[in-house]
């Protein structure tokens, strides 16, 4: 059973998410919160596996809530609910360790699949959110070539197999899918993923995927 904390200042949204998850089976909504500060407090006693956090909430917003949740002794995986006008928050939450981003109008089936993927240790990104984040990366790279050059140097430090694994991470492949496509054991893939994240200096595979996709779409100077 995947334990979920719902944090959103709109009760109707929390109620809808609860209904979706309970109908899907395999989920238990163990706590709800209407603001960012309450989300961290609720997580301390409910020990959720995943916190589904609205990016804009009173008292403490989703960014602050993400920091608080990930600082707990038993931190949940954080999935952020966002909208296009919150792009800056998405970038900042990603850098602080959020492992998923979903739009509020994401179809129920995709929400369920995304949370199950996160529970298994994978990332979850709405395609529309991914494209916006990459656009932001490209805009930053256009202002300064240094981040792009630094990342290209880090990529050069990867082994051939690590680059293969990273390319599949950027496609959104799970560990089991990577293992099947590269004819490797899943434990070997996990080791490669860990080394790739360490060499790139990122906290999770979602961050790695966005950085690489953004880099590939930015011309070299």
**Structural classification:** alpha/beta
Task: Kindly report the CATH topology of the largest domain.
Answer: Rossmann fold
User: Unreliable segments (pLDDT under 50, ≥5 consecutive)?
Assistant: none
CATH architecture of the largest domain: 3-Layer(aba) Sandwich
Instruction: Give the radius of gyration.
Output: 17 Å
How do the strands line up in the largest sheet? 2-1-3-4-5-6
Query: Helix share of residues?
Result: 55-70%
CATH top level of the largest domain? Alpha Beta
Sequence of secondary-structure elements = EHEHEHEHEHEHHHHHH
The fourth-level CATH homologous superfamily of the largest domain is Response regulator
Structure description:
The structure is a single chain. This protein is of the alpha/beta class. It folds into 2 domains: 2-125, Rossmann fold (3-Layer(aba) Sandwich), CATH 3.40.50; 145-216, Winged helix-like DNA-binding domain superfamily/Winged helix DNA-binding domain (Arc Repressor Mutant, subunit A, Orthogonal Bundle). The chain has 11 helices and 6 strands. Strands 2-1-3-4-5-6 form a 6-stranded parallel sheet, sandwiched between helices. Helix 3 links the parallel strand 3 and strand 4 (77-82). Helix 1 (11-24) packs across helix 5 and helix 2 packs parallel to helix 3. The chain is globular. The model has no long low-confidence stretch (mean pLDDT 83).
């Amino acid at each position: 059973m995947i334990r979920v904390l719902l944090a959103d200042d709109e009760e109707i949204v929390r109620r809808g998410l609860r209904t979706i998850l309970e109908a899907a089976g395999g989920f238990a909504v163990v706590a709800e919160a209407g603001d960012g500060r309450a989300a961290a407090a609720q997580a301390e006693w409910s020990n959720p596996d995943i916190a589904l956090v609205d990016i804009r909430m009173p008292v403490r917003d989703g960014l602050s809530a993400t920091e608080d949740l990930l600082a707990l002794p038993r931190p949940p995986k954080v999935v952020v609910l966002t909208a296009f006008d919150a792009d800056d928050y998405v970038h900042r939450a990603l850098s602080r360790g959020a492992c998923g981003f979903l739009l509020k109008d994401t179809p129920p089936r995709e929400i369920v699949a995304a949370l199950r993927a996160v529970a298994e240790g994978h990332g979850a990104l709405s395609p529309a959110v991914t494209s916006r984040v990459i656009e932001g990366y490209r805009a930053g790279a256009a202002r300064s070539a240094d981040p792009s050059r630094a990342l290209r140097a880090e990529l050069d430090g990867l082994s051939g197999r690590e680059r293969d694994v990273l390319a599949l991470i950027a496609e959104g492949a799970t560990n089991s899918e990577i293992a099947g496509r590269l004819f490797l054991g899943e434990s070997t893939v996990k080791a490669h993923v860990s080394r790739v994240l360490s060499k790139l200096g990122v906290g999770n595979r979602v961050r790695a995927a966005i950085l690489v996709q953004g880099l590939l779409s930015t011309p070299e100077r």
